[in-house]
Amino acid sequence: MEVLQIPGGELATRPIHFFWVVDCSGSMYGEKIGIVNNTIQECIPEMRTAADNNPNAQLLIRALQFSSGASWITTTPVPVEDYGWEDMDANGLTELGKAFDLLAAQLSIPPMPERALPPVIVLLSDGQPTDDYKRSLEKLKKLPWFRKAVKIAISIGQDADDDVLVEFCGNNELVLQANNAAALAKMIKWASTTASMVSAPSSKPMNSVPASVPTSSAGVSVVPSVPANDPFAPVNNGAPLVLDMSNIPNPDDFDEGAVW
Question: What's the predicted TM-score (pTM) here?
Answer without folding.
Answer: 0.82
